[in-house]
Amino acid sequence: MTIRGVHSTFATTLVPRIAAAALLVLVVCPATATTPEPAVPAASAADETADALLARTLQEIRNDDLDAALTEIDKVLHDYPNFRLANLIKGDLLLARAQPLRAFGAAPNAPRDRVEDLREEALARLARYQLERPTDRVPKSLLQLNRDQRYALVVDTAQSTLYVFENHDGQPRYLADYYVSSGKNGADKMRSGDKRTPLGVYQVAASLPRARLTAFYGVAAYPLNYPNEWDRREGRDGRGIWLHGVPINTYSRPPRASDGCVVLTNQDLEAIGKNLRVGVTPVIITENMEWEEPEAAGALREQLLQSLEGWRRDWESRDTGKYLKHYAPGFSAGHQNLAAWSQQKRAVNSGKTWIKVGLDRVSIFLYPDRDDLAVITFDQDYSSNNLSNKMKKRQYWIREKGAWHIIYEGAA
Question: Which residues, 6+ apart, have CB-to-CB distance to 257 below 8 Å?
């Protein structure tokens, strides 16, 4: 073989191999080449989500097979032509045929802030693809769904993931999950304009079709009831926290790109939107998705159901002293503290000769990232010798000194 022939072999084999390996390191380990590369799971032929296709591309890069990687990224772009991250990776792969890559998004004049956003999306999507979806455990927050809540959503902002659970006899069963973007400044919203995503237990409050939206929000939007009762109690403010899509010429946004909303691709939003019900579907937003054994969830659910039943039974008994023991010292309802609430209840109950209280459609959620705060919502059917009414009620229960007490109560 001539020297010229050896040089040609290097140009067609070794340079692409070095460049492809460098691209994987630059995507998943940008700070240092000595950081261990994460294992990229193989995707089945039936698993054709954007994350799965992207993972297969990175797997071929890891295998130093540039042609196979290009084939896989072309599959991504065939299904998702507006996927900017996929377009960037393809550009790097084509550039890697000629030279080793020293930066992710190595195209000349590429805006570095945009490239960094896309690198963060690559990291988030690869980490998301590797997440465990345990079928033998349940999310810690979803203790009980009522019979009308056919589906529940849990958003994990740290993992850029929205989980969908289906109601099976009141208990959640994992159904699917999707990549999402959230607040530019992270989670735990406190103030209007802080560009953070709130953490808490919410519900879909409205449904806005595409005809009522600007192009920025994509195919639909679903406002949430932020701030909820607990947010207001804690002094949190702001508004306009929605689940929504992206502009039609965009496939997805970086993991930290919204002003506080939870943003999905239009395809994913359409997939979950058909199952969302205004005033019914719960949306729990957390920074730390926790799974636990069904037995542990069942034990906590029974504690709270027993506490709720004790409250209902003592209310019916007309023993106002016993009834008021279910309320925490820090209780408030609107502008009433516990003292004002107690005075009102004693006055009302003094005129009763009998009371009946029925509870139906009970849902129970543990507040995200807390073990001592639960939200119970139910339909209340109250009747007495001089008054009858029905209402949807929400209570927040706090665990103090090993016992559950009501810290807030009001109409839902």
Answer: 117, 181, 184, 263
Task: Match 């090993």 to its residue by tokens.
Answer: 402
- Of 408, 306, 304, which is closest to residue 364 (Cα–Cα)? 304
Q: Do 206 and 277 meet the contact criterion of CB atoms below 8 Å apart?
A: no
* 229 confidence band (pLDDT: 50, 70, 90): very high
Please state the rounded mean pLDDT for residues 347-366: 97
CATH superfamily to which 138-291 belongs: L,D-transpeptidase catalytic domain-like (2.40.440.10)
Same fold, 138-291 and 293-411: no
Task: Express as a percent the part of the chain with pLDDT over 90.
Answer: 72
Assess contact for 334 and 404: CB atoms under 8 A. no
pTM of the model: 0.88
Segment 184-196 shows an average pLDDT of 97
Q: What is the pLDDT of residue 96?
A: 82
Q: Comparing C-alpha atoms, which of 254, 155, 241 is closest to residue 195?
A: 241
Mean pLDDT, rounded, for 158-175: 96
Contact (CB, 8 A) for 41 and 53: no
Which strands, in side-by-side order, build the sheet including 336-337?
A: 142-144, 355-366, 373-384, 388-400, 403-411, 327-333, 336-337
Q: At what angle are helices 50-62 and 66-79 packed, to 10 degrees?
A: 170
Q: Write the single-letter amino acid at 177.
A: D
Domain spans of the chain? Answer: 3-129, 138-291, 293-411
pLDDT score for 61: 82
CATH architecture of 293-411: Roll (3.10)
| Phi, psi of 230, rounded to the nearest 5 degrees | -70, -40
What pLDDT does 109 receive? 67
Measure the CA–CA gap between 389 and 147, rounded to whole angstroms: 22
Q: Has residue 30 got a pLDDT over 80?
A: no
Q: Which residues of 360-370 are buried (b: 16+ CB within 10 A; e: fewer)?
A: eebbbbbbbbe
Which long-range contacts (C-beta less than 8 Å, at least 24 apart) are formed by 31-37?
37/62
pLDDT bracket for residue 26 (50, 70, 90)? low
Cα–Cα distance measured from residue 85 to residue 27, given in angstroms and rounded to the nearest whole number: 11
Instruction: Tell the residue number behind the tokens 């560009």, with chain if given.
Output: 195
Contact criterion met (CB below 8 Å) for 24 and 58: yes
The pLDDT tens digits of the residues spanning 50-79 come to 888 888 888 888 788 888 999 999 999 998
CB 365 within 8 A of CB 374: yes
